Amino acid sequence: MESPVGPLRVTSDGTSIVGLSWGRAGAEEARPELEDACAQLTAYFEGRLQAFDLPLAPEGSEFQREVCAAMLAIPWGETREYGDIAKALGVPAQAVGGACGGNSIPVIIPCHRVLGAAGLGGYSGAGGIETKVWLLRHEGAAGLLI
């Protein structure tokens, strides 16, 4: 699908969303979860949706899934620091940063809402930090960026 942050490709395992990446792809079989994801992403980018309601199955270890759950708990328009999530999970902030960077479903699982203690931190999606800033501005988060 086309989006303000570039073309996005949503992937599924047949029942749940397992990936979101930047770029175009060939036509895929129409699946309800993919259609729902594209409709919800469109509503998100139009400012009509603040919380996704999709079946998600992020790839990765148990720790990765714990970090994804922590990111999903960050409301629209708010941010957390890597250290906040690290403290809640009892792990080093660097481990949280690595897990955020490995998020297989960015935007929907809002890794863009996680910031470094002294700055924005990174962003592994296409466009890097500019995309992260765009998403945060879109949500009215991190007033220091606006």
Automatic annotation (TrEMBL):
Keyword Methyltransferase attributed: yes
Domain Methylated-DNA-[protein]-cysteine S-methyltransferase DNA binding, residue spans: 62-141
Keywords of this entry: Cytoplasm, DNA damage, DNA repair, Methyltransferase, Transferase
Keyword Ribonucleoprotein part of the UniProt annotation: no
Primary localization class, coarse: cytoplasm
GO biological process terms, semicolon-separated: DNA alkylation repair; methylation
Xref: InterPro entries: MethylDNA_cys_MeTrfase_AS, MethylDNA_cys_MeTrfase_DNA-bd, MethylDNA_cys_MeTrfase_DNAb, MethylG_MeTrfase_N, MGMT, MGMT_N_sf, WH-like_DNA-bd_sf
Domain Methylguanine DNA methyltransferase ribonuclease-like intervals: 1-58
Catalytic center residues: 111
EC number: 2.1.1.63
GO cellular component: cytoplasm
Cellular location(s): Cytoplasm
Pfam families found in the cross-reference section: DNA_binding_1, Methyltransf_1N
Catalysed conversion reaction: a 4-O-methyl-thymidine in DNA + L-cysteinyl-[protein] = a thymidine in DNA + S-methyl-L-cysteinyl-[protein]; a 6-O-methyl-2'-deoxyguanosine in DNA + L-cysteinyl-[protein] = S-methyl-L-cysteinyl-[protein] + a 2'-deoxyguanosine in DNA
A single GO molecular function term of this UniProt record: methylated-DNA-[protein]-cysteine S-methyltransferase activity
Leftover remarks: This enzyme catalyzes only one turnover and therefore is not strictly catalytic. According to one definition, an enzyme is a biocatalyst that acts repeatedly and over many reaction cycles.
The protein's role, per its UniProt record: Involved in the cellular defense against the biological effects of O6-methylguanine (O6-MeG) and O4-methylthymine (O4-MeT) in DNA. Repairs the methylated nucleobase in DNA by stoichiometrically transferring the methyl group to a cysteine residue in the enzyme. This is a suicide reaction: the enzyme is irreversibly inactivated.
UniProt-listed HAMAP family: OGT
Family: Belongs to the MGMT family.
UniProt protein name: Methylated-DNA--protein-cysteine methyltransferase
